[in-house]
Hints:
Layout: E1 7-13, E2 16-25, H1 27-42, E3 47-58, H2 63-75, E4 79-83, H3 87-93, E5 101-103, H4 106-111, H5 113-129, H6 135-196, H7 203-211
Parallel strand pairs: 2-3, 3-4, 4-5
Antiparallel strand pairs: 1-2
Helix pairs in contact: 1-2
Amino acid sequence: MKSEALDISIVSRRGVVWLYLNGPFHNEQAHGIRDKITGLIDDGNRRLIIDMENVVSMDDTVAPMFLSLVNIIKGKGGDIRFIFKNESVSRAFSPFRNLLRIYPDALSLSAGGFFGLLKSRGRVLSKKTGVRLSRPVALILLFTLCGWFISLAFIIRLQSQRIHQQERELTELVRWKQQSEIEIRALRERIRPMEQLGILKDTNEHRNKNER
């Protein structure tokens, strides 16, 4: 059994329980930590934040224990969030990163929302991949994407308006054609008695002579 001790501090702030872990985190200590957190959940605490930034080492089998605790508290309508960005804890949690809510620091956690989550994920991933985006570059990329979406929406709207206009013009042409045919038939009915009396020549006969 390893002799190093894992220190744990528990602080309650505005209905949220913060747990600060310091030191090496080995398999032998997992059972005691699980019992403490389970006890907090059983006492009615539904919002937990576990800060492990000062954990200097972590066995690979410790992370699944936290995953089971997340499932337990979610079943009770609660939530557990984790704070860390150091290499040892990040490596141990890497298989479960998409299943847990992980933040690099308390500032990112307090930001919350969609952009806060993006910020937290970006910082944690930058620790692992070495890729970092400065704030100006990130803002430029964000505004560029927004500009693309706005331009695309504007083009789609213009195309839609043009199609509707063409549909209206086509409808008007069809209506005008139908009205013209009705008027032509009515005019023919009026002049037919005159053609029969010989006052006017038969328009069909006159047209046939012209075609010859």
